[in-house]
Structures are given as structure tokens and as C-alpha cells.
Amino acid sequence: MARGKLRIYLGAAPGVGKTYAMLSEAHRRVERGTDCVVAFVEHHDRPRTEVMLHGLEQVPRRELEHRGSVFTEMDVDAVLERAPAVALVDELAHTNVPGSRNDKRWQDVEELLAAGIDVVSTVNIQHLESLGDVVESITGVRQRETVPDEVVRRADQIELVDMSPQALRRRMAHGNIYKSDKVDAALSNYFRPGNLTALRELALLWVADRVDEYLTEYRSEHRVSKIWGSRERIVVGLTGGPEGRTLIRRAARLAEKGAGGEVMAVYIARSDGLTSASPKELAVQRTLVEDLGGTFHHVVGDDIPASLLDFARGVNATQIVLGSSRRKTWQYVFGPGVGTTVARESGPDLDVHIVTHEEVAKGRGLPVARGARLGRSRIIWGWLVGVLGPVVLALLLNTMDLGLANDMLLFLTVTVAAALLGGLYPALASAAFGTLLLNYYYTPPLHRLTIADPKNIVAIAIFVGVAVSVASVVDLAARRTHQAARLRAESEILSFLAGSVLRGETSLEALLERVRETFSMESVALLERESDVDPWTCAGSVGPESSARPEDADVDMPVGDHMALALSGRVLPASDRRVLAAFAAQAAVVLDRQRLQHEAAQAKELAEGNRIRTALLAAVSHDLRTPLAGIKAAVSSLRSEDVEWSEEDRAELLEGIEDGADRLDHLVGNLLDMSRLQTGTVTPLIREIDLDEVVPMALGGVPEDSVELEIPESLPMVAVDAGLLERAVANLVENAVKYSPADERVLVSASAIADRVEVRVVDRGPGVPDEAKDRIFAPFQRYGDAPRGAGVGLGLAVARGFAEAMAGTLNAEDTPGGGLTMVLTLRAVDRRPDLATTPSGAERQVPC
């Protein structure tokens, strides 16, 4: 029996229309005469989805009892017995109730597919197992129900059901997804615009990757070598030379001109590992291409043009970017060059761009370290074997007669041993000395440095040639091995350095300490001076007794005209100065960055101080003067002897004095709180408390019946300072009441999400546009046409400052239906959930 086919409708979030699309497809198939049944579809009381079930045959569900409750699940046996052509199975990631045939619904689907039944199912992107951590970091909700990625990947068809976050939130607000009593909570939590946008991007990228995989698989199965320009893929050929940066930037500009352009930088290395490319430059180019959104690839191949073209065709590239050759004119006698060969063999479906650069025709040679690299002990042993070995061997061979051929092989063995130990020169000495001994003792006429038989002359010549060749190869291999080890160490150091530069993590002292450890120095200092005649000053140093002048150090590395890195301890070889130069340049950059950060911080403090002082003067000149003037006028009136005030008038004047004093107390309190926040003297006393102990106390400053309070008793405790929390909530509530209509009550609610608790203060006032939501938290800011007498604009600034002092956050959001919602997020210290809320519907008991 042939296996059934699986079709999946994939969505970014609940409510985008996956089930509706699946049912629409079922109606189309039924109209075409296909035997299609509903094995399990959950409409979640959504009227439009429920209507789509009419006219479709539904297989009765199986009822299961668990912990005193009855649940319904898909009856796999009934579906298998019915044996339809197509079965609709909703919510692929669903966990079955204990006692079911399988633990997961996708396992039920596997049984249906194995029985030859085609299945149409639905799943949300957040339920894919590999994306669980990503989704939790975005939404704060850990998905308990997941499906292995491989199950979805194996689907014969995946159709994305897409909807913009704005349209989905409108559907939610209209009641098309959840019931009206859950709309506000859903819009404020899981269905935030940021959450929906991130989930939508995950879904689009996941489907795009699957499409790319299908295309690659199809091209491989059908052996399609021709380029299909489904989207622009630009391959940049790198040589490790300095021109690579120019090529990468040019390729990035080409990719930006087309939708979905992709840059892929590739470096072709020889299979023997012998290369003159600069590891430092390759590391820089790798970082550059990744910063520009591309990828870096390292490919091994001896035929560079063929390897480059194979890579480009393998990734379905449409363009190749190469640099003009750095070879000099006379070097073209060895061949046409990589660029010319690639352009000639690329074919009509692959464009090749040859980009000019500053290194054209300057030569391809890069500095290669030379000199003895085998170590003193090995060289000494090589000379001993090369000089004494032939003598000892000759003494041994004089006691026996093995023949000239065997004698030569034994002398050749000694020469190879000398090459392995000491390199080229001991091997050459061994070959020369062995030749003389072979001629003197073993080639007629004996005991004379002449050779009578011409055949022996050829044999000795071959011996010398083989000995020299073997010695050269061994010596070259030893040098290359040392070079590879050294370049690897350099690349690791420079990779660390480049990473620290990108992250901006390394301080000057840490960088200098790294230099000291890398080069085994006693002390390292970064020296600078204003001009050529000024004395040197130390910008930073590590180690004891660092040098005060570059000329006093064992090693000095200039950095520009008036800065130098001074190292004391030992003299470095010239080959180490390349890495040291990179460290020196980075040290100068780190010093400049630290100074700029310090100056920026000082400038910010000065600007903030000036702004606050200016605003404070304005507040004192008007906002504090107004209640003072009212108090003074009321007191003067009461003290006047010319007027007889009635009891009612006196009470009204006294009430005005009391109101003015309250306003002064509130304004001065906010000013003092803001001053404490600005000077960093707010020290919260954090302890674990229940919100219902603090929030009601913060409502004393607002009129009765102006606030509706919803604080569930099941909320976890929060780690806060009770006094700071009370002041923060009081300021938020007063601000909300101030801007709310008289007939609308302010809602203060709290809910637990992941490891935090959110306190939401919801008003139905005029609201605040997105571009002003951050500005309203700045000190001395009023939004819109708020009257001057309404305060000095410190309430929200103080509330946010107190929230951040308690390791919390305070942000503003739009209230669904109009208004502004202040969201105060606090850290939860205890979780006591009784129910698990799934993003796909209402609360339900979790079977366990």
C-alpha cells in the first residue's frame, strides 16, 4: 500500500486562518468527488470556522476520562476503519490525553499516512521543536506542545497562511478569534505587534529555507547544472589579498539592487595546505562579509578556476565577482590567470565581474618566513648523523661484501635520516661525504678517487640526485609545518582580537595584558605625547617597571606619529612584529574609544544637568508659584478685617489653602524623587511581597470610584521595594485619572507572564502616538495641551526611575479601542500556576 501524502497549513500565530483554509480545501475536494472526512477539527467557538464544518462528514471522536474530567480525542481506529481518501486533522502538535493510542497527535497522523490515507493538517511556527527557545525569548511563553521538525519537513506540501500583525490584531479586536472577555489580555500579551512580527518573520524564513531545500534537491535529482536565477546569489572569489575588501563591498552593492540578493564569499585553498594567503586579512574579510549580511566559505581545491565554478553552480549562483589579477606582466607566460579562465568557462548563465583595485599588477608575492625552523637539538643531531653516519657505515661495510647497489641504498638511508633530523644542509653534507666514501672504498679502482666503470658513475650521480631531492623535500616540509603552526597561532590571536573589536569588550588594560601574555614579556606600556618635542606620557601599562620612553624598551612599535607600544623583557624576532602591529593599532583604537565614551558621558551629564536646571527654574517660576499664590491670597483674605466671611466662605478658603498645600507637597516630593534618581542615591530595599498588599495603598490620592482594581490572589510574589512600588503605581494612576474621561474608570490589573509579573494601568483617554511614547517618560515633559497647573511633568519620569531601580521596566502601549496603557513589569519570585494557558485558545487542564 502506497504511503499517504501530508499537506500542512503553517501559520505564524493562532487566528491567521489555518483551520479555515484547511476546511476550504476540504470543500473544494468534496466538490471534485474526493472522499474527504473530518477526523478532528477544533473550531474554538469561532462562528466562521464552525460554519465551514457544515456539509463535511465528521468521524465521531473518542471520549477519555482523566482525573474526573471527560476529554475528546481523535479516534484513530474509527478513521482507519472508515478509510477515507483524505482526512482532516487539526493541531498537529497537540498532546493527547493520557490513555490515548499515542502520546502525540502527529504520531496518530503517521499511522493514517502509513495506511495510505492522505492527511491535511495545521500547525503554528511556535510549535516546531527547534524553535522553542527562540519563541520563548520573543513571547516569554514556553511551548509545552511541540512537533519534531522532521515531521513537518517530510510533508509533501507546506502552505504558508500569512497575515500582517495589524490585520490579525484587528481580527482579534473584532472578536473573530477569542471571546470578548479575553481580547484585551491577548492583545496586551501574546498578540503584541512586536511578537507577531517576529513570529511572522520566523515562519517566512522557515518556509523560504524549505523552498530552497526543495529546489536544491530537485536540481540534484534531475542533474541540473544550469543556473536558475530564482534570486541573485553573488559569489566573491577571495585570494587572501588586500583587494578582497573592495570585492566584498562591490558584491554587497550588487546584491542590494535585486530583491533577496545574497553574497557568498569563498576562499579556495590548495589541498596540500601550502598557501601564501594572509590569515589576518582573511579574518578581516570574513568579518566584513558577515557584517554585510553574507556568508564566508572555505573550499579546498587545487584547480582554483574549476573549484570556484563548481562552488558557484552548486549554490545556484548568478554572478561571480573577481578582482583584476595582481600578477605582473611577465608572470602571464605561465597561464592566462584565474579571472580569464573563469570568465571563459562560466558559460552564458553565469555573469563574471572583474573589479579593478589598487593592488592590480603589484605582484602576488607575500612575505614568507625563512631561516632554520627545526630547533638547535635537531640540527646538531642532523650534523652528527650526516658526518659521522657515513664513516660508521663505511667501517661496518668493510667487514662484509653486499654489493655496490646495497651499499648505495644504505648510504642513501643515512642521508635521509640526516635530512629528517637536521634538514637540508646536514643531508647535503651526508650525500657529499657518502659519495666520496662510495667512490674510495666500493667502486673500482678501490682506494682511489676515480671511477673506471661508467655505469658506476651513473649510479653515484643518481645517488647524489636522490639524496639532494629527498633532503630538499624534507626540509621544505619541516619549514611549511612550522609556518602552518605559526600562522595558525597568529590567526587565533587575530581572530580573538577581531572578535573583541566587534564586541567592544576589551579594555586597554586587558588588551595590554593580552599582549604581555602572548609575547611572554615582563611589562607592556602604551606611550603617547602631544608633539615631537613633548615628553612621553603613559596612557596605560601592565607589569612591573614599564618603560617610560620607547627607546628604553626592548621592543617598540610605533602607532601613528605620537604614540608607541613599548615592551620590556626580550627582543622579538621580525616575524612577530606583524601581529604586534595589529595589537598596537587596536590599543590605540581602544584608548580613543575609552576617551570618547568618557567625554560623551561627561557631555551627556552636563547636557542633562543643564536641561534639568532649566526645567526646574521654569517649574519653580510657574508651577510652584501658582499654588503659593493661591495659598497667599486665601490667607490674606482670611486675615482681612474689612470683610465678614461666612462659615461657608471660610471653609472654602481653608479648603483652597489645603489643596494648594497638597499640590506643593506633591510637586516638591516629585522634585526630590527626581533629584535622588539623578544623583543615584535611590537604594531600594528589595523583599518579597504580594501585589495586593501594595497596589491598593497607592490609590489614596485619586477620587473614589475612579479606579477599577483587578489583582488576582493567585499571582506570584514579586521582589520589590514596597515604598518605591507604591509611589510608582500612585504616579501612574494619578496620570491615568487625569487624562481619562469623567465617565470612564481607570483599570489597574496584574497578570503573570513567564518569570515576570505585569501591572497594567489602562485609561480611555486621548492616547499618545508611537513617536511620543518614550518622550513622555523624560523629566519635565507634558504631552499635548496639558495645562501648566497640572504638574511639572515628573510623575512618569519618577515612576520609570523607581521601576528601573527595582530591576523592572515601565513602558507605554496603546489601549485597544483608544487610550493609553502603562505596563509596569516586575520580577516574580514564585510561580503557582494551576492552569496552563495555550496560545491557541482558552485555559484548559493539562493532562499529566
UniProtKB/TrEMBL annotation:
UniProt cross-references to InterPro entries, sorted A to Z: HATPase_C_sf, HATPase_dom, His_kinase_dom, HisK_dim/P_dom, HisK_dim/P_sf, Histidine_kinase_KdpD, KdpD_sf, KdpD_TM
Membrane spanning stretches: 380-397, 409-437, 457-478
Catalytic activity line of the entry: ATP + protein L-histidine = ADP + protein N-phospho-L-histidine
PROSITE patterns according to UniProt: HIS_KIN (PS50109)
Pfam families referenced in this protein's UniProt entry, alphabetically: DUF4118, HATPase_c, HisKA, KdpD, Usp
SUPFAM superfamilies documented for this protein: Adenine nucleotide alpha hydrolases-like, ATPase domain of HSP90 chaperone/DNA topoisomerase II/histidine kinase, Homodimeric domain of signal transducing histidine kinase
Enzyme class: transferase
Any one GO molecular function term: kinase activity
Domain of life (superkingdom): Bacteria
Subcellular location: Cell membrane; Membrane
Residue stretches in coiled coil: none
Database matches in CDD domains: HATPase, HisKA
Domain Histidine kinase: 619-830
Keyword Transmembrane on entry: yes
Chief location bin: membrane
Claim: ATP-binding is one of the keywords in the record: yes
Name of this chain's protein: histidine kinase
UniProt organism field: Streptomyces siamensis
